[in-house]
Specification:
This protein is α+β, with helices and mostly antiparallel strands and 201 residues long. It has three helices and eight strands, in the order H-H-E-E-E-E-H-E-E-E-E.
């Protein structure tokens, strides 16, 4: 004869227990929602402070950059009388600018010699950047015309302890306008020979 042990069924939760568990869950959900709303409100309230901190950080970074730029060595050579002799000054070209040829038509009336003063940054490779120019004399437009020639030019970088440095450089170039080419002479036609008189005439 088989024998079966009687297994008692687990007690069912009472209605009051279910209501209590539901109330606790609801209270936790409400508390979580309120906490999230509070955190969002605090985050939004702190937005002006974060913006102020970001602006202050940007100002500090700009001040540090300007201070570093102010410490860059500046080399100012004597102005060469002729751009082709720029290597005679302390600043040495390793790749000369290809200056455009000028004639008197490129300069204002009465100006035979003109130039431009440039301020550039030279990197450790000798490349020039951030160049600005000033016409000499003012109003010739020569600086703007000469600027493209500096894009492919290279200078010997400034060395400190044998190491090339970024540096600032100022230099002046001057040009004497070439005379305008004379117009080609038009040869005059040779006179035609006069006809010889007929015999017996």
């Amino acid at each position: 004869m088989s024998h079966y042990d009687h297994i008692a069924e687990p007690p069912r939760p009472s209605r009051a227990g279910l209501i209590r568990a539901w109330a606790i869950g609801l209270a936790l959900a409400v508390a979580g929602g309120l906490s999230l709303a509070y955190l969002v409100a605090e985050y939004r309230a702190a937005e002006p402070w974060r913006d102020a901190r970001a602006a202050e950080y940007a100002r500090e970074r700009e001040a540090r950059r300007k201070a570093e730029d102010a410490r860059l060595p500046v080399a100012v050579p004597d102005a060469p009388a002729n751009p082709a002799r720029a290597a005679d000054v302390p600043i040495e070209w390793t790749a000369h600018p290809r200056w455009p040829a000028l004639t008197s038509e490129d300069l204002p009336d009465g100006v035979d010699v003109a130039g431009a003063r440039f301020n550039c940054t030279v990197d450790a490779e000798g490349a020039l950047s951030d160049c600005t120019g000033t016409d000499l004399p003012e109003g010739t437009g020569l600086a703007e015309r000469l600027l493209p020639a500096l894009e492919q030019a290279r200078m010997k970088p400034l060395l400190m302890g044998g190491r090339p440095l970024h540096s600032k450089v100022s230099f002046t170039v001057q040009f004497a306008a070439r005379p305008d080419p004379a117009p080609a002479a038009t040869p005059e036609p040779e006179p035609e020979p006069e006809p010889e008189p007929a015999p017996g005439g």
